[in-house]
Amino acid sequence: MTDHSTNGVDTHAEHHPVRTPHAEFYVYFALIFLVATPFAILGWIASALMHGEMPDQNAISRAWSEAQAITPLIFRA
Q1: Smallest Cα–Cα separation from 37: which of 66, 17, 2, 10?
Q2: Residue 61: CB partners within 8 Å, gap ≥ 6?
Q3: Which string of DSSP letters, residue by residue, matches 3-64?
Q4: Residues 22, 9: Cα–Cα separation, whole Å
Q5: Confidence tier at 75 by pLDDT (50, 70, 90)
Q6: What's the pLDDT tens digit per position in 25-54?
Q7: How far is residue 17's CA from residue 57's CA, in Å, rounded to a whole number?
Q8: Contact indicator for 48, 62 with CB cutoff of 8 Å
Q9: What is the crossing angle of helices 59-76 and 23-51, to 10°?
Q10: pTM over 0.70
Q11: Are the C-beta atoms of 75 and 25 separated by less than 8 Å?
């Protein structure tokens, strides 16, 4: 049997082709974004009131970031 690890080549590091998101991904993204938006708005208002200044990230950007983080996790499971 050949030992490929001695050549410094990692056989497990094969690159998989990047898949383009399908319609199902966008549907889940939109639903998560719609659910996350009210919570992001409430969090943004609470943060502004507690700290007395505007947060760095606005509510829509925060909801968008949450949807971007959560949606791929659904498809990896």
Answers
A1: 66
A2: none
A3: -GGGGT--TT-PPPPPPPP-HHHHHHHHHHHHHHHHHHHHHHHHHHHHHSS--SS-HHHHHH
A4: 34
A5: confident
A6: 999 999 999 999 999 999 999 998 988 888
A7: 33
A8: no
A9: 140
A10: no
A11: yes
